[in-house]
Specification:
Blueprint (H helix, E strand, L loop, with lengths): L1 H20 L5 H8 L1 H12 L5 H28 L4 H25 L8 H27 L4 H22 L2 H27 L5 H30 L6 H28 L14
Helix pairs in contact: 1-2, 1-3, 1-6, 1-10, 3-4, 4-5, 5-6, 5-7, 6-7, 6-8, 6-10, 7-8, 8-9, 9-10
Organism: Streptomyces coeruleoprunus
Keywords: Membrane, Transmembrane, Transmembrane helix
InterPro entries: YndJ-like
């Protein structure tokens, strides 16, 4: 499981985050994105080193890059003074990598941060690259591309669900289950809007296929997430963490995260194909 999780994290660090930053419409975040590999490559190397000083230092360097994104989020909020649903989503996306990096530094040091064992810290890293960054960003983009009220639901429930899952780590399994329910509702709404609105109005076959895959994958992966959270809270039989990484984690990373970002990059560079040409405002 450790090797698979590290490969998923590398995808998030090296591909999903830098590609996604170009879609935020934020100049500071895009500027950090242009230098992102200077932070992400050392962070990726830290995954494959034994726990210790060198691995911790490389992870901390990656953490510095994620801190720049969090600062960009704070500056964006101060500048726009907006908590519109799409803005909430993009702010969540910009802050989430710093949560992942904090867990990574602790795990690479071998320190049970806040009492969490190293396995949980290890899984927190991909969670906040994909559920935190990729999902929140896509929810914001979807919200901006539709006039349907469901867009607002998606843009708010994905960040809220991600936050509730994080809080559930500190409270109990029932709180984490509540977060999983809210996050699943948001992700399924993203999938529905992607399938009905974006895919249906996209004439480019490659872009349409990427959108279709990203929407379809979410149906299965979030059902798995609900199954796991329900099992943890109630004691009912449920998939173990290794099986979740191989199914939910891998499918979300490739089927949703990668396909979504690639599709939105294609939409951004083909204005005639975009359902609504506006981006998330800077």
């Amino acid at each position: 499981m450790a090797v698979l999780v590290d490969l998923i994290v590398m995808l998030g660090m090296l591909v999903i985050v830098p590609a996604g930053l170009r879609l935020t419409g934020d100049a500071a975040a895009a500027g950090t994105g242009r230098a992102w590999l200077l932070f992400a490559v050392p962070g990726a190397v830290s995954l494959w080193l034994p726990r210790g000083t060198l691995a911790t230092a490389l992870a901390a360097w990656y953490g510095l890059g994620t801190l720049l994104l969090a600062v960009a989020a704070a500056r964006r909020l101060a500048r726009t003074r907006s908590l519109a649903p799409a803005e909430v989503a993009v702010l969540t996306a910009l802050v989430s990598p710093s949560v992942a990096a904090t867990a990574l530094v602790a795990e690479r040091r071998g320190h049970p941060l806040f009492g969490f064992d190293l396995e949980i810290l290890d899984l927190t890293v991909p969670h906040f690259h994909f559920a935190g960054f990729a999902a929140a960003l896509v929810a914001g983009l979807v919200c901006r591309s539709t006039t349907r009220p469901a867009g607002t639901l998606a843009a708010l429930s994905v960040p809220l669900g991600t936050l509730l899952v994080l809080l559930g780590y500190f409270v109990d399994d029932w709180a984490e289950l509540a977060g999983a329910v809210v996050l699943t509702a948001g992700m399924w709404t993203v999938a529905l809007l992607t399938w009905q609105d974006l895919r249906a109005r996209t004439h480019d076959r490659v872009t349409g296929a990427l959108l279709a895959v990203s929407a379809a994958v979410l149906v299965a992966t979030m059902l798995l997430a609900l199954s796991w959270a329900l099992g943890e809270a109630t004691g009912l039989p449920h998939p173990n963490l290794a099986w979740m990484a191989a199914t939910h984690g891998l499918a979300n990373a490739l089927g949703f995260g990668l396909c979504s970002v690639l599709a939105w990059r294609r939409l951004a560079t083909a204005p005639a194909e975009r359902p609504h040409p506006e981006e998330i405002p800077a």
